[in-house]
Structures are given as structure tokens and as C-alpha cells.
Amino acid sequence: MNVLFLCTGNSCRSILAEATFNHLAPTGWEAMSAGSHPTGQVHPRSLALLAREGISVDGYFSKAWDNLPHTPDVVVTVCASAAGETCPAYLGPAIRTHWGVEDPAHATGTDDEIDAAFDAAYRILRTRIEAFLALPLTDLKNDPTRLKAELDRIGDLFP
Fold first, then answer.
1. Distance between CA 13 and CA 81 in Å, rounded?
2. What is the pLDDT of residues 73-103, one digit of tens each?
3. N or C: which end of the chain has fewer CB within 10 A?
4. The model scores a pTM over 0.90
5. Which PANTHER family match (predicted)?
6. For the domain with range 2-157, which CATH number is right: 3.90.550.50, 3.40.50.2300, 1.20.210.10, 2.30.36.70?
């Protein structure tokens, strides 16, 4: 099953989610990421955080959704619409859910404060991904209505 993590710039949150999901996922489940307006580069703090967590950063880059390697079965938007950010709408056939996370690329303050914003975004995404992967995936793979309900619940339960 292919999961697309989608945000606006594809430089922080969606990259963190893609790399983390691929690091933790069972065989047969793969994540991709994309942006509606990709920045063209992965934020260096995202790469540094992933490396500190022992997650490979090889092959990750900022990209648009118009050239994905696979058609997604699940699309997870990670934009923070509460912060006035417009969530992109993927128009292909897929189960859709929203897991809003504040964009650490917009964090200001000291280096420690900015690092803390990246860490907070990563921890939220990792917690949600771990909850996703703890679901009975074999059963849910064939029950899209139940899978969507579970994914929506995960987005609501782990702020």
C-alpha cells in the first residue's frame, strides 16, 4: 500500500513523515511525499533531525505530486490549516485524511527554539505514524471505510 504525505512546500513535515514511515513500515507499505508548491529543497534541519534519529536521509528531495513513482492509496495532508495555511487537495482516487502539524520552517527565535519546533513536528508525526502502523493493517487494507475512520481518529487523538 502506498501512502502519500502531502503539504505545501515538501521541505519539512511531509519529508519527516515520509522518511519516518519508510523507516518503520512493514514490507509492502511505502510512503512518498510531495508538495503543492514544492520549495525545491529539503530543509537542512529536517535532514539533521532524521540523521540524529537514525533514519536514512538518502534519496529524499522536495517534489511536486505530478510525478509520483506510485499512485497513492492513502493521502495524508500534514499542513496546519489552523495557522491559516491552505491545505493542498490531491485529486486522485485515494483515502484522504488530515494530520495538521505546524510548519517548523516558519519557526523563529534562537537555534534551540527553532530546533525544538522541528523536534515537536517530528514527535507528533512519529506518534501518529506509530499509531497507524499499530493498526491491524492486513485487515484494514481491504476495508477502506474503516481505514479512513482509523486514520481520522489518529489525526484527532495525537495533537
1. 13
2. 999 999 885 444 556 666 677 899 999 999 9
3. C
4. yes
5. ARSENATE REDUCTASE
6. 3.40.50.2300
